[in-house]
Specification:
The complex is a heterodimer of chains A (about 110) and B (about 120).
Chain A (H helix, E strand, L loop, with lengths): L3 E4 L2 E5 L4 E7 L4 E9 L5 E8 L4 E4 L2 E6 L4 E6 L8 E9 L5 E3 L3 E6 L1
Parallel strand pairs in A: 2-11
Antiparallel strand pairs in A: 1-3, 3-8, 4-5, 4-9, 6-7, 7-8, 9-10, 9-11
Chain B lengths: L3 E4 L2 E4 L5 E7 L6 E7 L5 E8 L5 E2 L8 E7 L2 E6 L8 E8 L7 E3 L3 E5 L1
Parallel strand pairs in B: 2-11
Antiparallel strand pairs in B: 1-3, 3-8, 4-5, 4-9, 5-6, 7-8, 9-10, 9-11
Chain lengths: ~110, ~120
Protein backbone atom coordinates (compact mmCIF):
# COMPACT_ATOMS: atom_id res chain seq x y z
CA UNK A 1 0.00 0.00 0.00
CA UNK A 2 1.33 3.42 -0.96
CA UNK A 3 2.32 5.55 2.01
CA UNK A 4 3.15 9.23 1.63
CA UNK A 5 5.13 11.00 4.35
CA UNK A 6 5.88 14.68 4.68
CA UNK A 7 8.60 16.20 6.80
CA UNK A 8 8.55 18.46 8.71
CA UNK A 9 4.98 18.51 9.98
CA UNK A 10 5.31 22.19 10.78
CA UNK A 11 7.81 24.87 9.90
CA UNK A 12 8.17 28.49 10.97
CA UNK A 13 10.61 30.78 9.20
CA UNK A 14 11.27 34.52 8.99
CA UNK A 15 10.30 36.32 5.84
CA UNK A 16 12.85 36.14 3.03
CA UNK A 17 14.24 32.71 3.83
CA UNK A 18 14.54 29.97 1.28
CA UNK A 19 13.05 26.71 2.46
CA UNK A 20 12.60 23.09 1.48
CA UNK A 21 9.65 20.81 2.16
CA UNK A 22 10.12 17.08 1.86
CA UNK A 23 7.85 14.31 0.65
CA UNK A 24 8.56 10.59 0.46
CA UNK A 25 6.51 7.71 -0.89
CA UNK A 26 6.93 3.99 -0.51
CA UNK A 27 5.97 2.68 -3.96
CA UNK A 28 7.92 4.18 -6.86
CA UNK A 29 5.37 3.01 -9.45
CA UNK A 30 3.65 6.35 -9.58
CA UNK A 31 1.98 8.12 -12.46
CA UNK A 32 2.70 11.61 -11.23
CA UNK A 33 3.26 13.67 -8.11
CA UNK A 34 1.54 16.91 -7.26
CA UNK A 35 2.10 19.62 -4.69
CA UNK A 36 -0.89 21.52 -3.34
CA UNK A 37 -1.44 24.45 -1.09
CA UNK A 38 -4.34 24.54 1.36
CA UNK A 39 -5.36 27.59 3.34
CA UNK A 40 -7.32 27.08 6.58
CA UNK A 41 -10.87 25.96 5.89
CA UNK A 42 -10.35 26.06 2.15
CA UNK A 43 -9.93 23.62 -0.71
CA UNK A 44 -6.78 22.68 -2.57
CA UNK A 45 -4.78 24.90 -4.87
CA UNK A 46 -2.55 23.00 -7.26
CA UNK A 47 1.01 24.32 -7.29
CA UNK A 48 3.08 21.96 -9.38
CA UNK A 49 2.50 18.66 -11.16
CA UNK A 50 5.46 16.43 -12.01
CA UNK A 51 4.92 13.51 -14.36
CA UNK A 52 6.80 10.30 -13.54
CA UNK A 53 9.18 10.87 -16.47
CA UNK A 54 10.12 14.36 -15.30
CA UNK A 55 12.74 15.43 -12.76
CA UNK A 56 11.45 18.86 -11.80
CA UNK A 57 8.94 21.59 -12.41
CA UNK A 58 9.20 25.31 -11.71
CA UNK A 59 6.65 28.04 -11.25
CA UNK A 60 7.76 31.45 -10.07
CA UNK A 61 9.43 31.10 -6.68
CA UNK A 62 8.51 27.41 -6.46
CA UNK A 63 10.56 24.49 -7.67
CA UNK A 64 9.61 20.87 -7.18
CA UNK A 65 11.90 17.95 -7.84
CA UNK A 66 11.14 14.26 -8.19
CA UNK A 67 13.44 11.29 -7.65
CA UNK A 68 11.18 8.36 -8.37
CA UNK A 69 13.79 5.69 -7.74
CA UNK A 70 14.37 6.85 -4.18
CA UNK A 71 10.73 7.75 -3.61
CA UNK A 72 11.35 11.39 -2.82
CA UNK A 73 10.20 14.83 -3.84
CA UNK A 74 11.10 18.25 -2.54
CA UNK A 75 9.33 21.58 -2.83
CA UNK A 76 11.68 24.53 -2.75
CA UNK A 77 10.26 27.96 -1.94
CA UNK A 78 12.55 30.90 -2.60
CA UNK A 79 12.40 34.20 -0.77
CA UNK A 80 9.45 33.22 1.38
CA UNK A 81 6.70 35.72 2.09
CA UNK A 82 4.00 35.90 4.81
CA UNK A 83 1.46 35.14 2.08
CA UNK A 84 3.10 31.75 1.64
CA UNK A 85 1.80 30.70 5.05
CA UNK A 86 -0.44 27.67 4.48
CA UNK A 87 -0.41 23.89 4.61
CA UNK A 88 1.45 22.24 1.75
CA UNK A 89 0.31 18.80 0.68
CA UNK A 90 2.14 16.29 -1.44
CA UNK A 91 0.15 13.65 -3.32
CA UNK A 92 1.01 10.81 -5.67
CA UNK A 93 -1.18 9.32 -8.35
CA UNK A 94 -0.83 5.60 -8.76
CA UNK A 95 -0.53 3.62 -11.98
CA UNK A 96 -3.02 0.88 -11.44
CA UNK A 97 -5.35 2.99 -9.40
CA UNK A 98 -6.62 6.34 -10.57
CA UNK A 99 -6.85 8.14 -7.28
CA UNK A 100 -4.26 10.20 -5.41
CA UNK A 101 -2.73 9.43 -2.03
CA UNK A 102 -1.89 12.34 0.18
CA UNK A 103 0.72 13.07 2.79
CA UNK A 104 -0.30 14.66 6.08
CA UNK A 105 1.07 18.02 4.98
CA UNK A 106 3.54 20.60 6.24
CA UNK A 107 2.11 23.65 8.01
CA UNK A 108 4.25 26.60 7.00
CA UNK A 109 4.30 29.91 8.84
CA UNK A 110 6.32 32.77 7.40
CA UNK A 111 6.77 35.55 9.93
CA UNK A 112 7.00 39.18 8.76
CA UNK B 1 -6.88 23.92 -16.14
CA UNK B 2 -10.23 22.22 -15.82
CA UNK B 3 -12.81 23.33 -13.27
CA UNK B 4 -14.55 21.22 -10.66
CA UNK B 5 -17.30 22.78 -8.61
CA UNK B 6 -18.80 21.58 -5.34
CA UNK B 7 -22.05 22.60 -3.76
CA UNK B 8 -22.82 23.50 -1.07
CA UNK B 9 -19.57 24.92 0.25
CA UNK B 10 -20.85 24.54 3.79
CA UNK B 11 -23.91 23.01 5.40
CA UNK B 12 -25.22 22.62 8.93
CA UNK B 13 -27.78 19.95 9.68
CA UNK B 14 -29.41 18.18 12.59
CA UNK B 15 -28.53 14.65 13.64
CA UNK B 16 -30.53 12.04 11.78
CA UNK B 17 -31.06 14.05 8.63
CA UNK B 18 -29.48 13.40 5.23
CA UNK B 19 -27.28 15.81 3.33
CA UNK B 20 -26.40 15.77 -0.36
CA UNK B 21 -23.20 17.23 -1.75
CA UNK B 22 -22.77 17.76 -5.47
CA UNK B 23 -19.56 17.63 -7.49
CA UNK B 24 -19.65 18.92 -11.05
CA UNK B 25 -17.01 19.03 -13.75
CA UNK B 26 -17.84 22.31 -15.48
CA UNK B 27 -15.90 22.16 -18.71
CA UNK B 28 -14.98 18.53 -19.19
CA UNK B 29 -16.41 15.05 -18.91
CA UNK B 30 -15.30 12.87 -16.05
CA UNK B 31 -15.99 9.16 -16.14
CA UNK B 32 -14.39 8.84 -12.72
CA UNK B 33 -14.61 11.12 -9.72
CA UNK B 34 -13.15 10.66 -6.27
CA UNK B 35 -14.51 11.62 -2.88
CA UNK B 36 -12.16 12.50 -0.05
CA UNK B 37 -12.72 13.32 3.59
CA UNK B 38 -10.53 15.57 5.70
CA UNK B 39 -10.65 15.82 9.48
CA UNK B 40 -9.26 18.97 11.16
CA UNK B 41 -5.51 19.25 10.82
CA UNK B 42 -5.32 15.93 9.03
CA UNK B 43 -4.75 15.00 5.44
CA UNK B 44 -7.22 13.90 2.81
CA UNK B 45 -8.40 10.32 2.98
CA UNK B 46 -9.98 8.65 -0.03
CA UNK B 47 -13.50 7.52 0.71
CA UNK B 48 -14.67 6.15 -2.62
CA UNK B 49 -14.24 6.15 -6.35
CA UNK B 50 -17.33 7.20 -8.27
CA UNK B 51 -17.78 5.62 -11.70
CA UNK B 52 -20.28 6.98 -14.20
CA UNK B 53 -23.06 4.52 -14.82
CA UNK B 54 -21.94 1.95 -12.27
CA UNK B 55 -21.61 1.41 -8.55
CA UNK B 56 -19.02 3.30 -6.58
CA UNK B 57 -15.99 1.55 -5.16
CA UNK B 58 -15.56 2.21 -1.46
CA UNK B 59 -12.35 2.18 0.53
CA UNK B 60 -12.04 -0.20 3.42
CA UNK B 61 -13.84 1.04 6.47
CA UNK B 62 -16.18 3.41 4.64
CA UNK B 63 -19.85 2.48 5.04
CA UNK B 64 -21.47 2.42 1.63
CA UNK B 65 -24.97 2.56 3.10
CA UNK B 66 -24.09 5.69 5.02
CA UNK B 67 -22.23 7.50 2.26
CA UNK B 68 -24.30 7.04 -0.87
CA UNK B 69 -22.60 7.96 -4.10
CA UNK B 70 -24.37 8.46 -7.39
CA UNK B 71 -22.60 9.27 -10.66
CA UNK B 72 -25.50 9.54 -13.05
CA UNK B 73 -23.85 11.66 -15.72
CA UNK B 74 -20.38 12.44 -17.04
CA UNK B 75 -20.37 15.79 -15.26
CA UNK B 76 -22.06 15.13 -11.94
CA UNK B 77 -21.39 12.95 -8.92
CA UNK B 78 -23.27 13.28 -5.65
CA UNK B 79 -22.40 12.19 -2.14
CA UNK B 80 -25.29 11.77 0.28
CA UNK B 81 -24.53 11.44 3.96
CA UNK B 82 -27.50 9.54 5.36
CA UNK B 83 -28.71 9.73 8.94
CA UNK B 84 -25.93 12.13 9.77
CA UNK B 85 -24.25 12.05 13.18
CA UNK B 86 -21.93 14.63 14.75
CA UNK B 87 -18.94 12.38 14.00
CA UNK B 88 -19.73 12.79 10.30
CA UNK B 89 -18.82 16.46 10.62
CA UNK B 90 -15.89 16.95 8.30
CA UNK B 91 -14.58 18.60 5.16
CA UNK B 92 -15.50 16.64 2.03
CA UNK B 93 -13.62 17.22 -1.23
CA UNK B 94 -14.21 15.73 -4.64
CA UNK B 95 -11.87 15.44 -7.57
CA UNK B 96 -12.12 14.47 -11.22
CA UNK B 97 -9.76 13.79 -14.07
CA UNK B 98 -9.90 15.41 -17.48
CA UNK B 99 -8.55 13.75 -20.57
CA UNK B 100 -7.75 17.24 -21.84
CA UNK B 101 -5.00 17.64 -19.25
CA UNK B 102 -3.49 14.22 -19.21
CA UNK B 103 -2.87 12.70 -15.81
CA UNK B 104 -3.96 15.61 -13.64
CA UNK B 105 -6.80 15.47 -11.17
CA UNK B 106 -8.75 18.63 -10.43
CA UNK B 107 -10.27 19.29 -7.07
CA UNK B 108 -13.44 20.97 -5.96
CA UNK B 109 -13.48 23.72 -3.37
CA UNK B 110 -14.68 21.37 -0.67
CA UNK B 111 -17.84 21.17 1.41
CA UNK B 112 -17.79 21.61 5.16
CA UNK B 113 -20.45 19.59 6.92
CA UNK B 114 -21.39 20.30 10.52
CA UNK B 115 -23.87 17.96 12.18
CA UNK B 116 -25.45 19.26 15.35
Amino acid sequence: KQEVTQIPAALSVPEGENLVLNCSFTDSAIYNLQWFRQDPGKGLTSLLLIQSSQREQTSGRLNASLDKSSGRSTLYIAASQPGDSATYLCAVRLYNNNDMRFGAGTRLTVKP
Amino acid sequence: GAVVSQHPSWVICKSGTSVKIECRSLDFQATTMFWYRQFPKQSLMLMATSNEGSKATYEQGVEKDKFLINHASLTLSTLTVTSAHPEDSSFYICSAGSNRVYGELFFGEGSRLTVL
